[in-house]
């Protein structure tokens, strides 16, 4: 099987069920941004050390990346068609559970956290910003077409999850997270 199909050479792509749309279609933008976020997560995870102490962390992220892939499938499914992997409220609750678990191990925030830290932590911060963009694009699609409202909640919670995960990784790796100090001179 060849990886290239040549079916997109004229600026169109297929949604699930074969419906053809321009590559700039808002649904394509939304699910493409989810794919970009998923890739950013994968890149961040590639900077993580291996070992039993991180086994749960990687297991959680395997679930998260799979759900993000499912969100892309939902956004690529035309109205009136059924999606195979529907995001459910339990998926949002899972993120909340992990946020609470990891956040309980972190020091309280006293300043705004700047993206950075170790490469994995900085990468998770970057992934968070891409998820925020995916959320905005999914909301935009939802203004024109029906979008599962749980998809929007999941993306919103996913950005919170990635923020906490970045802080968690930085702390576990012993890398101080950069913060915005309130007493710095205003420019």
From TrEMBL:
EC annotation from Swiss-Prot or TrEMBL: 2.5.1.17
Main localization of the protein described in the UniProt heading: cytoplasm
Pathway membership, UniProt: Cofactor biosynthesis; adenosylcobalamin biosynthesis; adenosylcobalamin from cob(II)yrinate a,c-diamide: step 2/7
Superkingdom of origin organism: Bacteria
SUPFAM superfamilies linked: Cobalamin adenosyltransferase-like
Gene3D superfamilies xref list: Cobalamin adenosyltransferase-like
Cellular compartments per GO CC: cytoplasm
Catalytic activity: 2 cob(II)alamin + reduced [electron-transfer flavoprotein] + 2 ATP = 2 adenosylcob(III)alamin + 2 triphosphate + oxidized [electron-transfer flavoprotein] + 3 H(+); 2 cob(II)yrinate a,c diamide + reduced [electron-transfer flavoprotein] + 2 ATP = 2 adenosylcob(III)yrinate a,c-diamide + 2 triphosphate + oxidized [electron-transfer flavoprotein] + 3 H(+)
A GO MF label: corrinoid adenosyltransferase activity
Keywords of this entry: ATP-binding, Cobalamin biosynthesis, Cytoplasm, Nucleotide-binding, Transferase
GO terms, biological process: cobalamin biosynthetic process
Family to which the UniProt record says this protein belongs: Belongs to the Cob(I)alamin adenosyltransferase family.
Name the UniProt record assigns to this protein: Corrinoid adenosyltransferase
Organism of origin: Aneurinibacillus danicus
